[in-house]
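Progress narrative, work stream C.
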Amino acid sequence: MSAQPEYSFFDAVSASFDKAARFTSWDPGILEQIKQCNSVYRMHFPVKIGDKIETIKAYRVQHSHHKTPCKGGIRFATTVNLDEVMALAALMTYKCAIVNVPFGGAKGGINIDPKKYTPYELEKITRRYTHELIKKNFIGPGTDVPAPDYGTGEREMAWILDTYTSMKPGEIDAQGCVTGKPVTQGGVRGRREATGLGVFYGIREICTMKDMMEKAGLPVGIAGKRVIVQGLGNVGFHAAKFFRLGGAKIVAIAEFEGAIYNPEGLNEEEVFQHRKKEGTILNFPGATNILQSGEALELDCDILIPAALENVINGENAPRIKARIIGEAANGPLTPEADEVFIRKGILVVPDMYLNAGGVTVSYFEWLKNLSHVRYGRMEKRFTENLNQAVLGQIEKLTGKEVGDQEREFILHGPDEADLVYSGLEETMISATREIIDAWKSNPSIPDMRTAAYVVAINKVGTSYAELGIFP
């Protein structure tokens, strides 16, 4: 018997691309250029860990230069390999195109288990990686702008920024070389929750569409919908939070050690604190334990949010999924085989390539903030509050009535940075959702929402190449 061919994430992305390319009219040469990774940097570098020297394997892939700088996260994980980084870089290109963020796609990764290193050792590895990127011009505010991803966060981005600025003294826009930084280092308020909030905005918009909800056999709106979230990391936690605040019920939460279920609803903050204290989400008060984490994905629910790693729903378990809507908060949680199963079952898959674009959208806002050297809201907050005060004063004078304290505070409030970031993200996700749905409706031959999203992305990237005059 021949061995089963190894799953390739990049091949899966390419297969989805090819499926959508049939619904576009671009020259095959342009399509091939859009699909391929432009630049691949594979590196090995030595770092002294304790009294030994370790050779660290790392990558940075720039998928497309149709717009610059390139943009994409850096992940620290033992699963990091070239295939994964190439696939994630390609998804970044399509993601940025769909949400109208003017970046080419990129991705980076270091093949380590960050839990096995002290903060000082991680700092050495991160700084050396940054040094390697600088040497080959694979980082810079106008070249390639990394961000956090799985296994990294604000701390690592601060190390990258400090390394870059120390090696590029006097570069006025140096803060824009990386996003996802602490606010004190030029980061933007609202970045941490951006991906989870973007997932909520995208699904919420789908749920306002009467025809989409009729197809899914669900009532319009988020309120009362039963939601299962896989993964209680940054994305899963905030997705669960905003769904709960929006009126949905989080009936199950899954993590690698198992899952918990409560049909009356779970509070993600309480579950998070329980896990912090006990080291597991299991045995949460009032919830039923599910020892096999994957079984939670197969429970009856309205909306399933896989917010962990790729390839968790495949041809084997897809037939058992009972959700009516699947929102891909993680990158590539469904295989192409799973997509085919869901098309047959009439389950709506809201694809990762735009649904989890909240992170890169707010990263774009952070990058703009760094280039403009001014905090959002600084110049208009007081003006708006003074104007609102004057308008409210006139209304109260004319009516002879005063509004209550809570209403007064809401009306007078001028937007600060987080308000403006949330507003920009909401507008981005609503516009992108409508654009994809419109593309899907305009061509009944397009089989699913993922293919429609790829069509939108291919058309935008193809137009950029054509307008650049690269293909005479």
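Work stream C, second folded protein:
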Amino acid sequence: MQMQLKDLGRGFSQPALCSQSVFRHALGALSRPASLQILEAAGALQGMQPPQGAHPAAAALLLALLDQDCKLWLSAGFMHSDAAAWLRFHTGCAVVSDLAEADFVWVAVASELPPLSSFSQGSAEYPDQSATCIVQVDGLQTPAPALAWALSGPGVKGSAQLQVDGLGAEFLAQRRASQLHFPCGVDFLLTHGQTFVGLPRSTHIQG
């Protein structure tokens, strides 16, 4: 069934101001891994109506980051959602079926995360031409219990603790393998509800 424009939820109430605010949070998340970013309901999220199955933080990040030059891939969890139509309408992005073509990837649940080797990784000459992946997880906590991930690298003073519910050993193994090709690689934004954290390719994780 084709989605009618009148049925699509609202985007940002003040597109310029809200986009700038969310973009600053995204920069903070990627420059300070394990710093929990919170988008306030009375701030950038006010009046926004995310698609079915979307975390508010994930939807807001994509509204702020996407434009008409971006290609987006959606996981199967959004197949019966209005996510594709919502983002095409509000950002002008193109939705693609080939994961390797995507500039941005939106994963509805962590179990739907594709193998990292299938993402666009950039090149030695243009490492910035790689995918950014937004994954909706079951929970985020920092500071976290002793058995949580230990993060280190640029932007982390010493070591930081982060608990991510839904991503486990297989994700960490694939991510370590991809880091062998640094500076190529994939940057991650993990969301839960109105919160998110950044995991840039330069961050090392022990867990």
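The CA atoms of residues 122 and 130 lie 4 Å apart. No further action is required on this item.
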